[in-house]
Each structure stands twice: as structure tokens, then as C-alpha cells.
From TrEMBL:
Gene Ontology BP annotations: regulation of DNA-templated transcription
Major place of residence: nucleus
Keyword Zinc on entry: yes
UniProt entry keywords in alphabetical sequence: Metal-binding, Nucleus, Zinc, Zinc-finger
Pfam family, one: SWIM
Protein name in UniProt: Protein FAR1-RELATED SEQUENCE
Keyword Zinc carried by entry: yes
Localization, UniProt: Nucleus
GO-annotated molecular function: zinc ion binding
Protein's job: Putative transcription activator involved in regulating light control of development.
Entries under SMART domains matching the protein: ZnF_PMZ
GO CC annotation: nucleus
Domain SWIM-type: 66-97
Length: 109
């Protein structure tokens, strides 16, 4: 597991140059996201993450946080399609004060 609060440049040795640029973009993009809890159940919490993409345009994403595994699943499906943790998931992990990300989110070259 890696520390979530470490700077994105520490991911550099884990990814190709193009993948690392995408990781950096996700870290930068999470500042444009607002996290709101929708509901909780045993073992998970569902969040609504609102991302401001322009002055008057907002995109909404549903992110499920699994407490025991400290893992997230976002409806944007960036991780499932590109194997890169999205800004919405990063935002929820930060909101939950998760100190380490699962090795599931770290790609092997």
C-alpha cells in the first residue's frame, strides 16, 4: 500500500510517462470536486461528487466507498477502463482520511 497524502510525483516510477501524466491530471482535478455523503449502509458509503468543469457547468458522479477494503468504485469507470484511479475516487479517499491506497490501484509496468 502507498500513502494517499504523498505527492503525485512519487507515483512516477510506477507508471509509463503517459500514465503518469494522467495520474497528475487526476490529482490536480480533485481540487475541483466537492464531496457529499448520500447514504451509508453496513460496510459502504455512497457519495455524490460534484465536479466543476467550467464556471456554470457541473458534472455529478456517484462513488461508492467500501470501508473494510478502503476501496472506491466510481461511475465514471476510469479505473475499470484505463486502470488509473479517478479524481472522484481520490476525493472520496481523501474525504474518508484514508492514509494508504490499496495495491489494487497501482499498476505494474
Amino acid at each position: 500500500m502507498l500513502q494517499i497524502f504523498i505527492p503525485s510525483y512519487l507515483f512516477q516510477h510506477l507508471y509509463t510517462h503517459d500514465e503518469f501524466r494522467e495520474v497528475q491530471a487526476q490529482f490536480r482535478g480533485k481540487v475541483n470536486c466537492i464531496t457529499r455523503s448520500k447514504h451509508s449502509a453496513l460496510g459502504y458509503t455512497v457519495y455524490k461528487v460534484v465536479e466543476q468543469v467550467s464556471k456554470s457547468t457541473f458534472n455529478k458522479f456517484t462513488v461508492t466507498y467500501y470501508v473494510v477494503a478502503a476501496e472506491v468504485k466510481c461511475q465514471c469507470l476510469l479505473f475499470e477502463s484505463r486502470r488509473i484511479l479517478c479524481r472522484h475516487g481520490l476525493r472520496v479517499l481523501s474525504f474518508e482520511r484514508v492514509n494508504k491506497v490499496s495495491s489494487r490501484y497501482i499498476l505494474e509496468r
